[in-house]
Amino acid sequence: MRVLIVYRSKYGFTAERSRALAQRITSECTVYDLAARGVPDPRNFDVVLVGGSIYGGKIQREVSAFCDRYSPVLRERRVGLFISCLYEGDHARAQLQAAFPDWLTGHAFAAGLFGGEIRYRDLGFLDRLLVRSVSPQFVDLSRRKPEALQAMADAVNALPPGR
């Protein structure tokens, strides 16, 4: 079974989580940053995992564009979805639901909320302003969800071979 993990990461947390996910999957994995050119053709994979980080309540446009461009292929594949965000519980689930088209969230065999992280020193100017509007403290914040990462890997590893 061949697995494609495509993601978009702004400051590196989602990239790191995507690589960690690939290490826990027992099948052959290709990990691809959607910021690069030349997306691997998802038709060459049995499973496609799609993820990104949430900023201002939205997922990156590269993730949305990938889902739109490959919607006919994704409808024929086993698809898992994941996001990185700092919210938890119902709010995080609502962000995951809003990040992807309804047809895709309804089709997905797995969905993961991998947590999030703010490294204040790494933030760009506009993101610093946004963080200041939420919290006047200039502190780093990390809410990793290793159990969600493992649950996604377990769901992929439990799939029967084939499409």
Structure description:
The chain is of the alpha/beta class. The protein has one domain: Flavodoxin domain (Rossmann fold), CATH 3.40.50. The protein is 39% helix and 26% strand. It has 7 helices and 8 strands; from the N terminus they run βαβββααβααββαβα. Strands 1, 2, 3, 4, 5 and 6 form a 6-stranded mixed β-sheet that branches. A two-stranded antiparallel sheet has the order 7-8. α1 crosses α7. The radius of gyration is 16 Å and the shape is globular. The model has no long low-confidence stretch (mean pLDDT 89).
Task: Please supply descriptive tags for the structure shown above.
7 helices; six-stranded mixed beta sheet; 163 residues; two-stranded antiparallel sheet; alpha/beta; 26% strand; Rossmann fold; single chain
Shape category: globular
The CATH topology name reads Rossmann fold
CATH architecture: 3-Layer(aba) Sandwich
**Tally of individual helices:** 7
Low-confidence stretches: none
Helix content: 25-40%
Number of domains: 1
H/E topology pattern:
EHEEEHHEHHEEHEH
CATH class category label: Alpha Beta
User: Kindly state the mean pLDDT as a whole number?
Assistant: 89
Q: What would you call the structural class?
A: alpha/beta
Strand residues, percent: 25-35%
Task: Give the termini distance in whole angstroms.
Answer: 8 Å
Question: Whole-number radius of gyration?
Answer: 16 Å
How many strand units?
A: 8
> What is the assigned CATH homologous superfamily?
Flavodoxin domain
Major beta sheet summary: 6 strands, mixed
